[in-house]
Amino acid sequence: MNKSKEKILASAKELFHEYGFQQTSVDEILKKSGVTKSNFYYHFKSKEELGLIILERFIKQYEADVLMKTLGNKSLDPSERLIEFYKAVRMFHRDLHNPKGCPFGNMAIEMSGSNENFREKLSAFFNSWEKVIEECINEGMSTGDFRSDLHPGVVAQLILSHLEGAIMMVKTHRSIEPLSSGSETIMRLLKAA
Amino acid sequence: MNKSKEKILASAKELFHEYGFQQTSVDEILKKSGVTKSNFYYHFKSKEELGLIILERFIKQYEADVLMKTLGNKSLDPSERLIEFYKAVRMFHRDLHNPKGCPFGNMAIEMSGSNENFREKLSAFFNSWEKVIEECINEGMSTGDFRSDLHPGVVAQLILSHLEGAIMMVKTHRSIEPLSSGSETIMRLLKAA
DNA sequence: TTATTAGGACTAACTAGTCAGTACTAAACA
DNA sequence: TGTTTAGTACTGACTAGTTAGTCCTAATAA
Lengths: 193, 193
Prior knowledge:
The structure is a homodimer.
Chain A lengths: L2 H17 L6 H8 L3 H7 L3 H21 L10 H15 L10 H9 L4 H28 L8 H22 L3 H14 L3
Chain A binds a DNA duplex through helix 1 and helix 3.
């Protein structure tokens, strides 16, 4: 059931990631999903509603498929978790022919200035993402994996900021290098003396 | 002379920074600058041409007013230069009611996937920006300001990536904190042992 | 029966861009 | 001296296409 609705969600998710929310027209979503306009507006009351639903779903999927399986994997050492996390992110951005950037970072830059609904959701997600990193750093400081002369929260914030900036560079330079060498350097800087 | 042309450039620069290139219509630029459409197309052959000219000008202005006066200020110690640079960036983003983000980072995310002219200009500028940072880091490693067990180029790349990500966070969270605490942490991590 | 899908015509506002023609100035010419 | 020419800056009306979203009808599942 709801075959059309799922088709719309899947198509729009890809289009929003590649072209951005505002630069993707409803007609393009219709064309890609093969759904009629009336059916679209039967399922979603507006393009904005669709965008917010897709954002929510993407967040939940990312938390489950990436964050929990790497940073939240308690069977690994904290530093191994961080390495696995970076590996997963590199995998996510491995299409270097046309890197699409971070779906959350893209949307944050595109929408934060013009739509509070998007901004608030993204701000909350970045905070929660940071918390997951912080827990890993905190534990790594206890185990001696990481140097412990810094606040875990501040380090987590630095890691997330750097990650988003590095993905921006990957997209702009069409090269994975800023992400791979940047994450390596972060790991070295965090190593306990 | 060329009063209209300068008005267009000034208005469009602000609008592009606040709303992005694609989200700013020619009509909005016309309205803000008080210039007629036909006059606009007398001075610029297309909206894209205007965007590229504004990007070029913004780059030159930023290099002269920010980069050269801070990171390129040879009368300061390398670590002081970096501190001054961060201070200047924070000043640039001090409007926290509605932080507009980095004009270059915004444009990179918005345009890199769809327009090679913008992408190439931004990629080249990020490289040159990185070089300016690298020179400062390199000198700081010689003077003992910074730890010298890392490649200056890699550190410079990390600093720029982090900066762009931090500015993205400032825009999303509407708080300067990710930038101020992040830059402080970067300074501490770079300190020689 | 109720939820879903299809079709298509339609709107009002907005999009980038074009066009023929005007006003002004300053140099070149006769 | 007056006249022509040329370049610059500018104007209002216009086009063709796109935008998100509406409305109504009818067919097709569950």
